[in-house]
Amino acid sequence: MITAEQKPIQEIIGYIAPYRRILLAGCNECVTVCAAGGRKEVGLLASALHLNHLKQGKNIDIREITLERQCDPEYVEELAPYIDGVDAVVSMACGCGVQSIAARYKKTPVFPAVNTRFMGASLSQGVWSERCKGCGDCVLGITGGICPVARCSKHLFNGPCGGTSNGQCEVSPDIDCAWRLIWERLKELGLESRYEELMEAKDWRPGGAGGPGTIIREDLA
Amino acid sequence: MKTDSRLEKVLATGELAVTSECGPPRGCRPEKVKEKAALLKDHVDGVNVTDNQTAMVRMSSVTAGILIKQMGLDPIIQMVSRDRNRLAMQSEILGAYSFGIDTMLCLSGDHAKFGDHPMAQGVFDIDSIQMVKMVRQMRDDGLFQGGAKIDGPPKMFIGAAANPFADPFELRVMRLAKKVKAGVDFIQTQCIFNLDKFEEWMKGVVDRGLDEQVHILAGITPMKSVGMARYMKNKVPGMDIPDAVIKRLEGVPKEQQPEEGIKMAVEAIERLKQVKGVHGFHIMAIEWEEKVPQIVEQAGLYPRPKV
């Protein structure tokens, strides 16, 4: 899923300072799962903003709404009945959601309340870790199910580099060396010999180097 | 001969080769490059010119290499995949070779985290092994990485690094084998302080016959002080400093530690000369280039062969 973290409250307050009527929009998908921008976080942020404005002696009107998916026009449409009655939208969805709102409602400013971080997996309660860079040409089938693009700090295809220390990445002892993990996994699978196959220079086009990506499924479109 | 590289010629004679290094300055002071390189003259077969080492901005390795070439020395330009994509690398290589630079070292590079621009985006378009393959293709096939023909291909003698001390140890010979497969001509190793472990690695290298396919130059760094030894042990990634090294330096008064460090470096060279597959030494005297001639002479590696 896409992970996100709420922005510092002062940054959000700064964005909405010129406006009085705010539509605060959460999303029921990824940001709900990673507890950054679901219904619960919408309520908490609304309370925090109310409190701040009370302290400042200012008046603010916040309408809370949480859409099923902010990255889907069908659900973004649900904001239409409210949009003319607000001065600005604050979106708690990932960057895809914010842009979907901006594309649909051209006259109303929209501000992000979260920083979109990465595509990751949950490791345990409250812990998420990056697992995919969306490179568009998945190599997990030859790297034992561990991604060198997302998990090696230098995204080396023929690692490990010389900086591995006690099995950890040179960037931080908290980061596992992806190539140590790949090697251990290949050994477990009895595929050690695969390590010595040279991985060729990557074509980065499918992952973004070729310009912003678009998928068109003729059978669905 | 694949190239006109002096290092290649020396290695072909079967004599032990000697290289050293010169870190370019953090500013526009060409005289600093020349001063450092002049200290090494006649005592080495090649001078590595580091490429934004430890991710700190410095004069570019190719530019400093040109200054060194113009002094009549033989630069070995280092190139890290951290700072350039494949287009920039290849154009730099064309430029370097146009100035007569014929030897280079392909590296991944320290992560930007270690330097003074930790906020920078690392490039890592290709890795060091893919870089070796690219430079070999430019030389042997006269083709750019993208497949187009080069009008006047660069003939580089191609080096890479090996760190026998990084984990997992059991992978380190296999990783060398990968570099050999990619077409590397010579290897300069990480600084060797744990000689036993290095010899164990070399045994693995020889057992696979890799020493017949690549020239290995053993990395030697003289310790200036016990403080430096402790710093390298604790702070430098992938470094293996046995406690015995620290104890030995602790055992002599501070003012005698530099001399002891040099003695240890010379002893290491003498021992490693006996190791099958070691074809030379890469002496990295960090900000201590003036001591390189003394080490080379005391280790019996002077004069250098005329080729």
Structural class, from helix and strand content of chain B? alpha/beta
Separation of termini of chain A? 24 Å
Biggest interface: A-B, 30 and 36 residues
User: Please, how many helices of chain B?
Assistant: 11
- Overall pLDDT level of chain B: 97
Strand arrangement, largest sheet of chain B? 1-2-3-4-5-6-7-8
Gap between N and C termini of chain B: 13 Å
Strand content of chain B: 5-15%
Sum up the overall morphology of chain B in one term: globular
The succession of helices and strands of chain B, N to C, reads HEHEHEHEHEHEHEHHHEH
CA radius of gyration of chain A is 22 Å
Q: How would you explain this protein's 3D organization?
A:
The complex is a heterodimer of chains A (221) and B (307). Chain A is an alpha/beta fold and 221 residues long. Helix content of chain A is 29%, strand content 23%. In chain A, the strands form three sheets. Chain A has a four-stranded parallel beta sheet, with helices on both faces. In chain A, strands 1-6-7 form a three-stranded antiparallel beta sheet. Chain A is elongated and about 65 Å long. Chain B is 39% helix and 15% strand. Chain B has eleven helices and eight strands. Chain B has helices at 6-13, 30-40, 61-70, 86-98, 128-141, 172-182, 195-207, 226-235, 243-250, 257-272, 292-298; strands spanning 17-22, 46-49, 75-80, 103-107, 157-162, 186-191, 215-220, 278-283. Chain B has an eight-stranded parallel barrel with strand order 1-2-3-4-5-6-7-8, surrounded by six helices. The two termini of chain B are 13 Å apart. The chains are: A alpha/beta (221), B alpha/beta (307). At the A-B interface, helix 8 of A face helix 5 and helix 6 of B.
